[in-house]
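As noted in the main text, all predictions were made from sequence alone. Below is one such record, for Glucose/sorbosone dehydrogenase-like protein.
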Amino acid sequence: MRAHRARTTVVTAVAALTVSLLTAGGACATETRDETPDEAPTTSAPATGPGQATPPGAFSEPAGLEELSAGWSMPWGADWLPDGSALYTERDTHRVVHLAPDGTRTVIGTVPDVVHGGEGGLLGLAVSPGFATDRTLYVFHTAAGDNRIARLTWDGDTLGGYETILTGIAKASIHNGGRLAFGPDGHLYATTGDAAVPRLAQDPAALEGKILRITTDGDPAPGNPFGTPVYSLGHRNAQGLAWDDEGRLWSSELGQNTWDELNLIEPGANYGWPECEGVCGREGFTDPKETWSTAEASPSGLAYADGSLYMAALRGQRLWRIPVEGTDTGTPQAYYQGEVGRQRTVLSTPSGDALWLSTSNGPGGDAVHRVTLQ
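Prediction:
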């Protein structure tokens, strides 16, 4: 099992298309915004972008919010264990924490080689689909020279066996991406930011500004569009991954100064950054299904439950519910605006009748909340 940097040469036709796309549009504006709270969120009506009217049919919606566990320090990644409890990462402390449904919290260990700073640190976490037998979990973290994906084992007592499976993803103080999730196909998906070098998002041979799809050994998953870890490109700083009940992949993405995005992800599709932010309307680029002003969203985590996507907003300090029917989205609705602060990660419970929602307000000031769906 080897760590490696995947920088595979892509076929000439793909490279030529990329050059064409890079030269077709004007240069983007200088970077001025990241996910930190630079001003109070606005209270204007939602900007819903290109979505359709709310589809017919009954959908569950949030019916109650209660604090499950307090005293956290920047919880970031999370995933379920087979028994219905969950594991969380803390970005700056490098800790992995077990959280039981009754709110009992236990630190199970720290991840080695993590270097935090800015938006980097210990980020995404995904539990192996075979955890009951292999006891393996995967993390995305910032190291001294790069971002990387690693695996560890937890036997219920000891967190150990650290081993990198994919290295060489460029790091920066902003735009590290970092979400990890296993798809219905059993492969591991990861979001990467552009590392504050926007042109990398349009380079199909680069790992940055992408959604990656890899095996549990870190190799390109079979069927990837370019024969590399790259699954889709043209992303600025995607931080949410969720599959609907038909197996379609959705992703939430932090925009620059104007538009944040919800995208329906297709293999090999180009989502436009940095040639466009929000709706592009140009051949060769795939437009988002929904957009929001950055003050209303700045999204991170994403989950799916009973016909709707739920998107956690950082600067927007609210939970967005977006009905989904097929490939169409309905009118987004906002919940809990300003009630718990900046919202980072949202999980749909295995039973599907609730969400676990974590905040990102600062060291010692964060919590995990339970949102009842009805």
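The two ends are 45 Å apart (CA to CA). The longest strand covers residues 62-72. These features were considered when defining construct boundaries for the mutagenesis experiments described in Section 2.9.
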